[in-house]
């Protein structure tokens, strides 16, 4: 079997995050409202964490086949799964923080500043599937701990994708890892990467607001 990957790269947002923390701790918080500041800090922290976990998961998944000749590929797959599970959990939490921040009842200037744009990741059509997969990850863990798992049932999120016959080599196939699957649910790496990039762009806007 030949293996290919559709794993878009999501650049880390070190500059924006660094600027935010410098402003927050040495110049002043972006708001006079403690709840707004708490939501903002939570969003910035979790978006950065989600992007880092996505990158670590991608690296580990590629390493599975780099190390396929040795037993260490099993460790790489386990790391990949854990990183992607953390990524989705952090994304879900960041989306919740952003939605509350943008619609905060105080009508804080920062909320107003963010309300003029409607990022796709905050809409139900995206926030919902991310939440559902995150919930499945946590519920599956509960089932394992409580002994409610069925024989042969998957016990974790798994990277997966289509497998097709090789066009020139008889009996060979090409498998493309392009998604994460848990039960009947799946999210493609292309979509996850696009949502993370949009979340990163919002984080940059927040950092720019704090530096005005």
Outline the fold blueprint.
Elements: E1 2-5, H1 14-27, H2 34-66, H3 72-102, H4 109-115, H5 124-145, E2 158-160, E3 163-165, E4 173-177, E5 179-182, E6 185-188, H6 189-210
Parallel strand pairs: 1-4
Antiparallel strand pairs: 2-5, 3-4, 5-6
Helix pairs in contact: 1-6, 2-3, 2-6, 3-5
Give a brief outline of the structure.
The protein has helices at about 15-25, 35-65, 70-100, 110-115, 125-145, 190-210; strands spanning about 1-5, 160, 165, 175, 180, 185-190. With about 210 residues, the protein is mainly α.
Describe this structure in words.
The chain has 212 residues and is mainly alpha-helical. The chain has one domain (18-153, 188-210). Helix content is 61%, strand content 11%. The protein contains six helices and six strands; from the N terminus they run E-H-H-H-H-H-E-E-E-E-E-H. The protein has helices at residues 14-27, 34-66, 72-102, 109-115, 124-145, 189-210, and strands spanning 2-5, 158-160, 163-165, 173-177, 179-182, 185-188. The protein has a three-stranded mixed sheet with strand order 1-4-3, with no helix packed on it. A three-stranded antiparallel sheet has the order 2-5-6. A hairpin with a 7-residue loop joins strand 3 and strand 4. Helix 1 runs parallel beside helix 6, helix 2 (34-66) runs antiparallel to helix 6 and helix 3 (72-102) packs across helix 5 (124-145). It is elongated, with a radius of gyration of 20 Å. The termini are far apart.
């Amino acid at each position: 079997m030949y293996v290919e990957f559709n794993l878009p790269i999501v650049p880390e947002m070190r500059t924006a995050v660094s600027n935010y923390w410098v402003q927050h701790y040495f110049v002043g918080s972006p708001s006079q409202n403690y709840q707004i500041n708490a939501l903002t800090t939570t969003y910035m922290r979790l978006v950065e964490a989600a992007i880092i976990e996505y990158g670590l998961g991608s690296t580990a998944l590629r390493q599975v086949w780099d190390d396929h000749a040795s037993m260490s590929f099993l460790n790489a797959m386990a790391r990949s799964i854990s990183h992607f599970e953390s990524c989705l959990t952090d994304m879900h939490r960041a989306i919740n923080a952003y939605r509350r921040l943008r619609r905060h009842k105080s009508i804080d200037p920062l909320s107003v500043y963010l309300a003029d744009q409607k990022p796709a990741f905050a809409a139900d059509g995206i926030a919902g599937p991310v939440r559902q997969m995150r919930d499945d990850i946590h519920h599956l863990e509960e089932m394992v701990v409580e002994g409610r798992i069925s024989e042969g049932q998957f016990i974790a999120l798994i990277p997966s994708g289509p497998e097709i016959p090789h066009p020139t080599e008889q009996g060979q196939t090409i498998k493309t890892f392009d998604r994460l699957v848990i039960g009947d649910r799946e999210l493609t790496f292309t979509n996850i990467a696009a949502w993370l990039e949009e979340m990163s762009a919002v984080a940059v806007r927040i950092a720019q607001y704090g530096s005005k």
